Structure prediction request, 529 residues.
Amino acid sequence: MEEFISYLFIGLGNGAVYAMLGLGLVVIYRSTGLLNFAQGEMAMFATFIVWTLADSGLPLWLAMFGGMFGGFVIGVVVHQVVVRPVGDPHQKPLAVVIVTIGMFLGFNALAKLIWGADDKTLLNLFGRSGIDIFGTEVAWQKLGALAVLAIEAVIFWMLFQRTKIGLAMRAVASNPESSALCGIPVTRVLMFGWGLATAIGAVAGTFTAPITAVSSNLMQLTLIYAFAAITLGGFDSFVGAIVGGLLVGVLSDVLPRYVDFFEKMPLAPAFILILVVLLVRPEGIFGQRKVSRV
Amino acid sequence: MSLLEVSGLTAGYGIVQVLFGLDFTVDAGEAVVILGANGSGKTTTLRAVSGMIASSGDVVLDGQRVTNSRPDELLRRGVAHVPQGRGTIVDLTVEDNLRVGAYSRPAGDVDAEIARWYEVFPRLGERRSQAAGSMSGGEQQMLAIARAFMSRPRLVLLDEPSLGLAPLVTREVFDRVGELVRDTGTAVLLVEQNANLALAFASRAYVLEAGRIVNAGTAAQLQGDESIRKAYLGS
Ligand SMILES: Nc1ncnc2c1ncn2[C@@H]1O[C@H](COP(=O)(O)OP(=O)(O)OP(=O)(O)O)[C@@H](O)[C@H]1O
Ligand SMILES: [Mg+2]
Prediction:
C-alpha cells in the first residue's frame, strides 16, 4: 500500500507535467487547427532561458517567469515568421505539419549551437524534501507540480471564459472568417495563442529538467506522453489534457511496477489505453464530435 | 457625399475575374439592394467591399479610400458584414456570439445592449446559453443580424438573408431588418435573388449580371421595368 501511494504520487506529479505540455498543444490545436510537433522543442528552448537566468543568479521562480516571457516571445515569432506565411492549416494541413517537424529539428540544432551539447542541471522548484502522506514520503516537488497545474487550470478557465481575448480565441478557433467580420484581429489572436502555449511549455520544462538534465533532448519523451494525454482526453479539450495527462502519468508510473510485462516498456499501458479509447470514442474522452458547419 | 462610394470595383479568385468594374453608392441610412442571379457575383461584391478578398478600384467610405482594408479594420470604421450562410459561430453560445459582435466596442454597456436585443428577438433570449449551431436557420439569421448591429455600424452588408429560409420566416427577417433600419438609421447594402421582397425593402436597386451592373434605379422604377419583371419577378 505504501509503495502504491508513493508510485501514485510520482505518477500524478509526472502526469501534471504532461498535462501542462498538453494544454499548450490544445491551445494551438484549437486556435490554429494543427498538432504542433515542435511544441516540446519550443518548451525546451524556453527552459534553456530559465537555466540561463537561474545560472546567472536569479531565484528559480523568477527565472521560470523569465523563461515564460521568453517562451511567449518565441511563440509569437514562430507564428509570425514560420507558421502564418505557410498558409491556412485548415486548407493545407500537411504543409503546416511538415513545417512544425522542421521547426522541431531547427530548435534542437539551435539549442545545441547556443548552449553547447553538455548537460546542464536545474534544481527542483520545491526542493528535495517531502511530506508524510498515509505513512509514505511524497516529494514536495510532485505535489508542487500538481498545485502548479491546478493554478494553470484556473487561469486558463478564467482566461477563456471570462476575458475578451479568451472569447476571441474561442471564436477564432470555431470560425476565423466570421470572427474577422466581427472585428476580431485574427492574426493577433493567433499570435497570442502561440505565445501562451510556449509560455506554459517553459513551466513544463522547468519541472522536467531536474529529473533528467537540461539538454536539447529535454522534452522529447515528455512530448510523446503529452500527445498520448491529449489523444486520450481529446485534442480540443483543456479538461481532457489535464485528465489525460494525469491518467497517462499514473498508468506509466504505477503499472510497470506491478506488471512484469510493462517493466521494459513503460509507455505501453498508456498506448493500450489510447488504442481502446480511440476504438470506442475516436474524438477522445472529452473531445467534441465535430458538428458539420455550413 | 455618399456614405459608401464604390467605383471601378474589380475582383476575382486567382486568375478567374468575377467583377468587371462595378459602380454603386449607398447613402447614410439608406437601404440599397443589388439584385442578381446565382453566380452573378453578389457575394463576391460584398466580400470585396469588406476586404475578405483582394480587389482593385475604389471603395470609399466617408470620403476615405478603404480598398483592401482588413475586415476588422472596416468593422471599426462602421461596416458590418453578415455573410452568406449567416456566419454564426456555431460552437459558441448565442450570448457569446452577441459578445463577439461587440468586440470592437468598450465592454461597459455591452450587457445592457444584449438585454435589449433579447427584447427585440425574444427567441434569442430563450436560447442565450445554447450553442448557436443548434438553432434553426431563421433563428441563426436573426442572431447574425443582431450580432452585426451589436457593433453599432453605420452600414450593414447583408448577403442573401432569404437563403434556405421558409417564405414566412424570410418575410419576418425582412420586416425586422426594415424596422432596424428605420429605428437606428443604419444603412443596409443587401444582395438578393428574391426581387419581390428586396424591392419592397429597398429604396434603390442595382441589377448585377455576370459581374457587371446592367440596370439601376429606384425600387419603384425597377418594379415596373419589363425586363426585370421577366427575369426576377416571374411575370
Ligand atoms: N472561392 C471561390 N473560388 C473560385 N471561384 C469562386 C469562389 N467563390 C465564388 N466563385 C465564382 O465566382 C462567381 C461569382 O460567385 P458569387 O458567390 O459571388 O455569386 P453569387 O451571386 O453570390 O451567387 P449565389 O446567389 O449562388 O450566392 C461564380 O462563378 C463562382 O463560381
Ligand atoms: Mg452569394
Summary: The longest helix of chain B spans residues 167-184. The radius of gyration of chain B is 17 Å. Chain B touches chain A at residues 50, 52, 70-72, 75-76, 80-81, 83, 85, 87-92, 96, 99-101, 103-104, 107, 133, 147, 151 (CB under 8 Å).
